Amino acid sequence: MFDSRLRPLIDPPLNAVARRLSGSGITPNMVTALGFLLGLMAAFALAINLYDVAAGLIILSRLADGMDGAIARHATPRSRHPNAKTQESDIGGYYDIVADFLFYSGMVLAFAIGRPQDALMAAFLIFCFVGTGSSFLAYAIIAAKRGDNHEKQGKKSFYYLTGITEGSETIAILLAFCVFPHYFQPIAAIFGTLCLVTTFGRVLQARRDFG
């Protein structure tokens, strides 16, 4: 819901850092891998109830997640395609989205490991994440098949369908879990319900656009 509104605030500093790194030899896929590694470290911290450490690692991981695309747009191309103007690539976009979805579900799984009494609600939240993720990716596949594209969320590898619960809201909820771990169940119940509303809204959007 807030992703498109945050882009004008987030993109300028990311682009400034990306321009400085563009000649350093650091590739977008390296940054994607770093973000994923930081996410794994955050999951481990959650599993052993180190919530402050986990929160810091989550923030660093998501900064890396935003940085990989910025570097791709500014770095000298390393592509097999002779007309490439940037390092943006389909495989880079693929790596990024796979890492993102593993990160989000992995955080919830790690919380369930650290707090087994909350495991049932964690399972419900992962179920809701599957709904938002599948409705998001399925729409992108059909949109690509039809040649649809837009850049409201910034320049992306594929079509981004908006909703109530997007990346920024999910990150905020993960951080809320770290700050208020004893309130995991009510927070997860509310956010999971909003995820289901987002899924339902995307299904309706797909019906209107593709039906």
Automatic annotation (TrEMBL):
Keywords: Membrane, Transferase, Transmembrane, Transmembrane helix. One of its GO terms (molecular function) is phosphotransferase activity, for other substituted phosphate groups. GO terms for biological process: phospholipid biosynthetic process. The chain crosses the membrane at residues 29-48, 93-113, 119-142, 158-177, 183-204. Signal peptide: none annotated. The keyword Membrane applies. Coiled coil: none annotated. Gene3D superfamilies: 1.20.120.1760. It comes from the Bacteria. One of its GO terms (cellular component) is membrane. InterPro entries: CDP-OH_P_trans, CDP-OH_PTrfase_TM_dom. This is CDP-alcohol phosphatidyltransferase. It comes from Thalassospira profundimaris.
